[in-house]
Amino acid sequence: MPPTRTAARSKKPPPDGFEDIEDTLLEFQNKMKDAENASHEGKKKYEMVWPIFQITHQRSRYIYELYYEKEAMSKKLYDWLLKNGYADANLIAKWKKQGYEKLCCLRCIQTKETNFSATCICRVPRDQLKEGQDIQCVNCGCRGCSSGD
């Protein structure tokens, strides 16, 4: 039987610059623990994971903005953060493509999981919706992540 990996995080020390963002990452980690331990009474089954999706999105967006927009992070630190699971590399890859700059989660663009092989309702621009129609994604609770909003 092959050996299994027990820890997702590597044992190598983090690169230079990690100390600058460590406090913010710890805040996200504490928010995640609170969301995981929160009461689920009165919520629908799919609503229980919305806070987890949103915190993961916020943490990935924070790292994305530091590296690509503010250029306040080294490539070595960025790669280390992705490798150790601090950000979603696939989601960040989509944010770099035109039309996906505000994407909330990858499940919203997967057509295999929908009834009519289409993307999620939150990807529809607001000007194409009926007047006063309120939308909310079932997957992650997003209220609209179309780049045309």
TrEMBL record:
Transmembrane segments: none
Keyword field: Nucleus
Keyword Nucleus: yes
Keyword Nucleus: yes
Gene Ontology biological process terms, A to Z: mRNA splicing, via spliceosome
Location relative to the cell: Nucleus
GO cellular component terms given for this protein: spliceosomal complex
Sequence similarity: Belongs to the BUD31 (G10) family.
Listed name of the protein: Cell cycle control protein cwf14
